[in-house]
Design brief:
With about 250 residues, the protein is of the alpha+beta class. It has one domain (about 1-250). It has 7 helices and 13 strands. A 5-stranded antiparallel β-sheet has the order 2-1-7-4-3. Strands 8-13-9-10 form a 4-stranded antiparallel β-sheet, with no helix packed on it. The longest helix has 15 residues, at about 220-230.
Length: about 250
């Protein structure tokens, strides 16, 4: 199943689902994969990988706006082309619905229902949460369309959320996960492996971009390729707003 949304001004209310071939060639359609600084959570066996693809319409540019109350920049996506056959949504994410090992319990089914309530999580320009009690689902900040991943491409430091049983960042030599200045605890609770802060705060992971590139890390190279795509499709204001991020990747 392929939830997808218009990346220009769309919110979760506009999200719909469509079935696509498993081996759909996104690049042929002009999409680029958005690889975030930190890997997104996965299933127990790490076989379910979330992939997000972005296509900026020809002649359009991504812009940025500073949110004074949050002390950060947000992204403003151009509207997709209107009408016409075969017009693909500008942002698509390949996802599954891994909650627990089958058969699903009543609690797991209720969790599945909450995870499929897109508007509950994809709030436009939502702030980064600092407490896990305030945000049991994704705790990262969103852009003006309510999307998480494009901003996670432009940041090397990203808040983590245990929305799936396995955090694949565990063991990545170029990622440190901290609670403030202290290292976060990697814990296992049943089949779940994830990071936790002793004070109930939200763990924050940081990728050593320059060190990883120098060592030839393939994931970080793909991450920087995503930044390159965003840079190539931004106006000058957005490029200036995220200039530090681009310099990390030598852009």
């Amino acid at each position: 199943m392929q939830p997808s949304a218009d990346a220009g001004g769309a919110t979760a209310d506009a999200v719909h689902s469509e079935r696509i071939p498993d081996r759909y060639d996104w690049r042929r359609e002009g999409y680029a994969e958005m690889v975030p600084a930190l890997r997104l959570p996965s299933t127990h066996d790490a076989t379910d990988i979330i992939r997000v693809y972005l296509r900026v319409p020809p002649g359009r540019s991504i812009s940025a706006r500073y949110i004074e109350a949050q002390g950060r920049n947000t992204l403003l996506f151009p509207p997709r082309d209107a009408g016409g056959p075969g017009r693909a949504p500008a942002l698509s994410s390949r996802v599954g619905t891994p909650i627990d090992k089958p058969p699903l319990s009543g609690d797991a089914l209720r969790t599945l229902g909450r995870l499929n309530d897109c508007g509950h999580c994809h709030i436009p320009n939502h702030r980064r949460e600092i407490s896990i009690d305030a945000a049991p689902f994704p705790r990262r900040e969103t852009d003006a369309s309510g999307f998480y991943v494009p901003l996670a491409v432009l940041r090397s430091e990203v808040a983590l959320a245990a929305t799936r049983p396995l955090d694949p960042n565990a063991g990545d030599p170029y990622v440190d996960v901290k609670c403030g200045k202290e290292l976060a605890h990697l814990v296992q609770e049943g089949d779940w492996i994830w990071y936790r802060c002793a004070d109930g705060g939200v763990p924050v992971g940081c990728r050593d971009v320059r060190g990883a590139l120098a060592a030839g890390d393939r994931y970080t190279a793909a991450f920087c390729a995503s930044r390159r795509y965003l840079y190539d499709h931004m106006d000058e204001a957005a490029r200036r707003a995220f200039a530090v991020s681009f310099r990390e990747c030598g852009i």
